[in-house]
Amino acid sequence: MADNEQKALQLMAEAEKKLNSKGFLGSLFGGGSSRVEDAVECYQRAANMFKMAKKWSSAGKAFCEAANLHAKAGSRHDAATNYVDASNCYKKTDPNEAVACLLKAIDIYTDMGRFTMAAKHHQSIAELFENEANDLQRSIQHYEQAADYFKGEESTSSANKCMLKVAQYAAQLEDYEKAIQIYEQVASSCLESSLLKYSAKEYYFRAALCHLSVDLLNAQHAIEKYAQQYPAFQDSREFKLVKTLCEHLEEQNIEGFTETVKDYDSISRLDQWYTTILLRIKKQSNDNPDLR
Hints:
By secondary structure, this protein is mostly helical. Helices cover 81% and strands 0% of the residues. It has helices at 2-20, 24-29, 32-52, 56-73, 76-90, 95-111, 115-131, 136-152, 156-172, 176-191, 200-214, 216-229, 237-250, 254-267, 272-287. The longest helix is centred in the first third of the chain and has 21 residues, at 32-52.
């Protein structure tokens, strides 16, 4: 480990020496570009040695140095690749630096018209904010940007995947209108494909629960509308659950509401998202018994 780190530090010093030493022959015959190439190679080798030594921040810094030199030399693709390499190292120690490196790579890819690559890296940033920084608002922004680029490149399924994350977190942050709009949109998009049609059921179910978080009457109208758009939804357990929950809320029967959810969960396990939304609906009904 220590040996690899030592070699890496030597390579970093060698790279800087190459960049700083012009020398008489170098200036006479213009050997500047080969010195830059040699320095880039030293930085990349140093980065890999740091990786072997598990010195992730140092590896990230070395990849950044290589990326900066590529960018100055006009090798944009190589610069972007090294910024992504740097980000992958920083992910292990410093999520903010990881994001900064990916943003530099994204700038290069968008400038080159490589929007699918830019979209994938926006998705990576969204995941970093989601998992490391627990910043759902910024995660949403990057998922939306990724979806926008995917749509532009006709990658509908990748765009929908990102938008479903936006809807999931929008609902968690109680922006139910936004979540409903996305779930309905993705459900409609699924209905156009015989392969994806079955997935529409889940998105209509999620949209219905978001409606129920806002207004009982809206939720009742919404599930009827969804059943018209997708008749198979009416026969699903999800439709029957929402319909029964609406009836319990109308009767202010909180015990019935709780039992219905328990019965459903005993057959089809409800994940954390569903549990959170259903608990909010129940609490809201308790707090506002006259809410209609």
